[in-house]
Amino acid sequence: MGKIETRVSTRGRAHVRLRNDDIRIIRLLEFGAFERRSRGGWRFGTKTISDAVAERLISSGRAEIIGDRLQLTRREAAE
Q1: Residue 8 — very low, low, confident or very high, per pLDDT cuts 50/70/90?
Q2: How confident is the model at residue 79 (pLDDT cuts 50, 70, 90)?
Q3: Count of H-run helices and E-run strands, the chain
Q4: Strand partners, 24
Q5: pTM > 0.85: yes or no
Q6: How far from each other are the two terminal CA atoms of the chain, in whole angstroms?
Q7: Cβ contacts of 33-38, under 8 Å, gap ≥ 24
Q8: CA separation, residue 11 to residues 47, 61, 77 (Å)
């Protein structure tokens, strides 16, 4: 597994360096939200991701949880 680097910005928000696989997940989030699975994790069609991947995306500020859906933050969706 690759190492995850964390650094803190001047505003106090932690920035997490994403893995290459996370970029693919962000691309899927551009098409729609992941839904929470009853057995844990998240799914988009047949693609599933773990809670750890979702947490990395949230920590990096790229995704947010609204209800039972993991989606791009409004800032990311606008870009």
Answers
A1: very low
A2: low
A3: 3, 7
A4: none
A5: no
A6: 30
A7: 33/66, 33/69, 33/70, 33/71, 34/69, 34/70, 34/71, 35/68, 35/69, 35/70, 36/68, 36/69, 36/70
A8: 35, 13, 22
Looking only at the bridges linking them, the beta strands covering 63-66 and 69-72 are: antiparallel
For residue 45, the 8-state DSSP code is T
- Give the DSSP H/E element, type plus range, for residue 63: strand 63-66
Report the C-alpha gap between 36 and 69 in whole angstroms: 6
Better-predicted residue by pLDDT, 5 or 79: 79
Task: Kindly report, residue by residue over 11-55, the tens digit of the pLDDT.
Answer: 445 566 777 888 899 999 999 999 999 999 999 999 999 999 999
CB atoms within 10 A of CB 58: 15
Q: Spell out a b/e string for 22-40, using b for 16 or more CB atoms within 10 Å of the CB, else e.
A: beebeeebeeebbebeeee
